[in-house]
Amino acid sequence: MSDFAASLATAASLIVEVEPRLVQTVLLSMQVSGTATLIGASLGLGFGAWLAVARFPGHAVLVGALNTMLAMPSVVLGLVVYLLLSRAGPLGEWGLLFTPTAMVIAQSLLVVPLVAALARRLVLSALAEGGDQLSSLGAGPLTRAALLLAHERYGVLTVLLTAFGRAIAEVGAVMIVGGNIDGVTRVMTTTIALETSKGDLPLALALGIVLLSVVAVLNAVIGLLQWRQQGRGAPAEAWA
Amino acid sequence: MKELQGAARSALASLRPPLVTLRNAGVRYGPQQALQGVDLTLRRGDRLALVGANGSGKTTLLRLLHGLPGAGGVQGERVAHALTAESGETRPCRFAMLYQRPFLLNFSVRWNVLVGLWLQRPPGMDGPARAARCHRALERVGLASLAARRARTLSGGQQQRLALARAWALAPDVLFLDEPTASLDPGAKREVESLIAEFADDGVTLVMSTHNLGQAKRLATRVAYLEAGRVLADLPVDRFFRGDELPEPARQFLRGELPWTT
Fold it and tell me: Averaged over B34-56, what is the pLDDT?
């Protein structure tokens, strides 16, 4: 219990004192995971929307594979990216291993299946409601999917938040491809892992609290944006 | 005398150009034969009402006439005729459809109409022309003052009027209506019905499915009765409601349904 109290106090002092190294770590975490979410979203939304409307032999197998990828352990994905980017790997020439770019690549690959699977589900349920009427207006399959993603834009925002949450909270992939180099590739989760291994549990817990606070603030901003866009209902509804 | 008038009307009707022809057409959804052996010609200016019990194939026939994709396995022949202008130019027939519950995108009222125009891309119509057409369509259904409102905040009747504006903006030759007033209150029903009548007066060909035989009487010039996926009768409205030319199942349907309508 005292550990929790100490961590809360440490977290509060870290936030209040605006410790430069903490700020750098938080900013790098946000930058890596934010970029990975944007890249993963642009690929995943397109792929998921296409899967919702496309019909071809092997479609069910592809959907099954996509859903299986949801359970991909981040450490395994990190290992695959590590093998690709390592000096002896096929992309070793690029010299990206142990850089933030490598971390972005790993996290992008991690969130693509998540965004695609959720976007597919979102488009499928909207298609059941209005797909026929959009066909009647002359919309082809991909246009229908794109329109329905725009129609469900608040749902898409929630998908992006989920993807960002998955990216910023994972530790396995960034640890392997980033190397947890102080001041270069050290992000919040890898710092937490390091401090835990060093036995500084209050600091590790405090960093966890900071991480959750960052995501909570982001969530609140997006919730408020949704509420203002919708122009009705209580702010709490936009979180639902 | 009446027979002569009827014959004259039939002869005149056959002079109007055909828009869609079905020959021995059918639709199958998996093991279920939803429609079979339909021979029907839709001509310009027709106001055809499809009546029959739930599951008789009315909506499937609407979708087949419309040529909507995904109508299941289609058998027989469906021909959508091109229209020839006085200049001799031909163009494909334009279709639009109104559903019992319109699907409106989570955009503004104006954007819902503009999306339809953007999807159909009428030839020679640029952005300002599309905006003007959209405004006229909204004015026509009395929603111009609500153009900036979010479409999904409209009442049921207003939503159906917006769907009508979206259809009207596309300048369709044929408007398909799938029980267009079934989920509306009496006031909204009257409003939507009078707008549909205005469309028809402008020369738009109507095909509507309805359970409301009073509505069929008011709006249609021709009524087809469906049962178990077959068209059992297809007659001008006066002869249909006289009933003496109808097969027994259609007469039973009329006897069962008419007391419920006014």
Answer: 94
Closest CA to B228 of B38, B35, B99: B35
Name the strand (E) or helix (H) holding B54.
Answer: none
Shortest CA distance to A168 belongs to which of A28, A8, A60?
A28
A3-7, A191-195, B71-75, B144-148: least confident range: B71-75
Q: Domain range for residue A140? A: 28-200
Whether B68 contacts chain A with CB within 8 A: yes
Question: CB within 8 A of B131, min separation 6: which ones?
Answer: B114
| CATH classification at residue A66 | 1.10.3720.10
What is the spatial distance between Cα B109 and Cα B111, in angstroms, rounded to a whole number?
A: 6
Q: Could you tell me where the DSSP H helices lie in B86-243?
A: 109-120, 127-140, 156-169, 186-201, 213-219, 237-242
- The CA distance from A53 to the nearest CA of chain B, in Å, is 12
Contact A132 B102 (CB under 8 A): no
CATH number of B1-94+211-262: 3.40.50.300
Residue A228 included in any domain: no
CA distance A157 to A226: 9
**Measured between alpha carbons, how far is A30 from B194 in angstroms, rounded to an integer?**
58
B222 neighbors B16 (Cβ within 8 angstroms) = no
In a domain, residue A239? The reply is: no
Q: Do A136 and B96 touch (CB under 8 A)?
A: yes
DSSP codes joined into one string, B142-164: T-GGGTTSBGGGS-HHHHHHHHH
Q: Within 10 Å of residue B151's Cβ, how many Cβ atoms?
A: 23
Going from the first residue of chain A to its last (240 residues), give the mean pLDDT of each consecutive group of 10, the final group possibly shorter.
Answer: 74 80 89 97 96 94 96 95 93 93 97 97 95 91 95 91 93 94 93 91 83 87 76 44
pTM: 0.84
pLDDT of residue A81: 97
Residue A34 CA to residue A161 CA, distance in Å, equals 10
Gap between the Cα atoms of B165 and B134, Å rounded: 8
Q: What three-state secondary structure class fits A113?
A: helix
Whether residue B176 is predicted with pLDDT greater than 80 in this model: the reply is yes
Cα angle vertex A219, ends A216, A224, to 5°?
Answer: 125
Residues whose CB falls within 8 Å of the CB of residue B144, separated by 6 or more in sequence, listed in order:
B135, B138
Question: How many domains is chain A built from?
Answer: 1
State how far the alpha carbon of A183 is from the alpha carbons of A141, A197, A214, in Å: 47, 19, 20
Cα nearest neighbour of B95 on chain A? A136
Give bridge partners of residue B20 from the DSSP assignment. Answer: B42, B80
Partner residue facing B103 (CB), from A133, A153, A231: A133
Which is it for the CA torsion A149, A153, A155, A157, positive or negative?
Answer: positive
